[in-house]
Amino acid sequence: MMRATCLLLVRLVLAGLVLSPGLVSAQGSPQARQAADENEAAQRSGPEPAVEAMSSPASLEPIRREQRSARLGVGMTMVVPGWGQLYADSPFWGVVAFSVQMFYIGSIVLEGQRADRALVRRDAQEPGTPDYEFHDGLVTEHRERRRDFAWWAAAGYFIIALDSYVSVSLADFDDPGVPTPDLGRDWTQSGASGAGIALSIDFGF
Question: Among 68, 129, 135, 169, which is most exposed with the fewest C-beta within 10 angstroms?
């Protein structure tokens, strides 16, 4: 038994010595070097599509969004209500902000005109008469309403300026480039590949 084992080991060693020069010569042959060069060239050419994809206009959109200034958006809102929302790609809220602020500003102007007309009518009456007191009350009422609308307009400016600051800061928060799982795909099929979530339950019966 020992003799047979020794003979088997000797044969394996001799076979290895015989095959070693062939492997070395195969590795150093022109065909092997050519195959290695082709493999290296393929590896170098692989990332080129990714580089082209990164330089496409769609992929540069998040970079452009990151270059937006939140302070500039606030300044634009203070100049024209709703302009900052348009700057942050929120046209609906821009229209809402513009409409609300125009309502308050128009109400301020309108109440001021009413107060001026009531003041003219009051001065045309004799002091102490019922007509004088009536128009004097109208002057006071319209001035108070104008002051209330001014406070509401100031509060509206503050709210839309804050909304503009947040909207510009989070303009790229919902970027479509973020990968999301395909929850509607049947991942139990053979050959399915991609990013997703698979749920498997084994009851162990």
Answer: 129
Length of the chain (residues): 205
- Look up residue 143 and give its two tokens: 């001035």
How many Cα atoms are found within 13 Å in the side-chain-facing hemisphere of 136? Answer: 10
The whole model's pTM is what?
0.50
The DSSP secondary structure of 88-107, one letter per residue, reads: TT-HHHHHHHHHHHHHHHHH
Residue type, 77: T
Tokens of 27: 């590795």
Q: pLDDT tens, 167-193?
A: 887 765 555 555 556 666 665 665 555
Which of 31-35, 66-70, 144-148, 169-173 reaches the highest mean pLDDT?
144-148
If we measure between CA atoms, which residue out of 131, 141, 135 comes closest to residue 119? Answer: 135
CA 172 – CA 56 distance, rounded (Å): 17
